[in-house]
């Protein structure tokens, strides 16, 4: 996956300041096919970067503070990969905590989780199921979008192909 970042030169002219692979990208060894990428992030009240300096190396939590953002691209392997006897959930949890601090700690054993964010999700490739805490499941396909309003949910890849989704998480205050 390619990331193009713009900024300004010394004369204030718009320029491409970087063009290449997403530097903060990880292919999990504990779950082949699971790929996590963090193309960009902002902190609350942060001004627009005129230089296009990469903020991702300084990110210590994928859970943004209220007013902050995280742009995350995930590839989910088929759920059958987790049913494989070779799958090690402890190793996967360890990789999740290293790669996705802030969010990984909120994950329940079955993948359900709740974050204090408004998430804009776009299915880029494949088909995935959004499961809510009442058991309701909604199938999403490439091009579909979902607005996740801080509700408890999980993502289920019931197909036999990987699914790639892009998410923009916007940190929000809980309403109660």
UniProtKB/TrEMBL annotation:
Residues 111-168 form the Cupin type-2 domain. This is Cupin domain-containing protein. It comes from the Bacteria. InterPro entries: Cupin_2 (IPR013096), OryJ/VirC-like (IPR047142), RmlC-like_jellyroll (IPR014710), RmlC_Cupin_sf (IPR011051). The lineage of its organism: Bacteria, Bacillati, Actinomycetota, Actinomycetes, Kitasatosporales. SUPFAM superfamilies: RmlC-like cupins (SSF51182).
């Amino acid at each position: 996956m390619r990331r193009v970042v713009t900024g300004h030169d010394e004369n204030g002219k718009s320029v491409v300041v970087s063009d290449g692979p997403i530097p903060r990208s990880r292919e999990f060894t504990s779950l082949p096919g699971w790929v996590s990428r963090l193309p960009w992030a902002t902190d609350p009240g942060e001004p627009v970067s005129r230089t296009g300096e990469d903020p991702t190396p300084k990110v210590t939590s994928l859970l943004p503070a209220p007013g902050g953002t995280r742009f995350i691209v995930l590839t989910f392997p088929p759920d059958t990969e987790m049913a494989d006897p070779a799958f090690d959930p402890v190793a996967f949890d360890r990789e999740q905590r290293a790669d996705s601090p802030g969010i990984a700690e909120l994950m329940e054993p079955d993948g359900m989780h709740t974050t204090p964010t408004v998430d804009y999700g776009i299915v880029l490739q494949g088909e995935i199921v959004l499961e809510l805490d009442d058991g309701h499941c909604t199938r999403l396909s490439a091009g579909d979008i979902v607005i996740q309003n801080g509700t408890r949910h999980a993502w289920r890849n019931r197909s036999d192909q990987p699914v790639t989704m892009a998410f923009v998480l916007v940190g929000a205050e809980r309403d109660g």
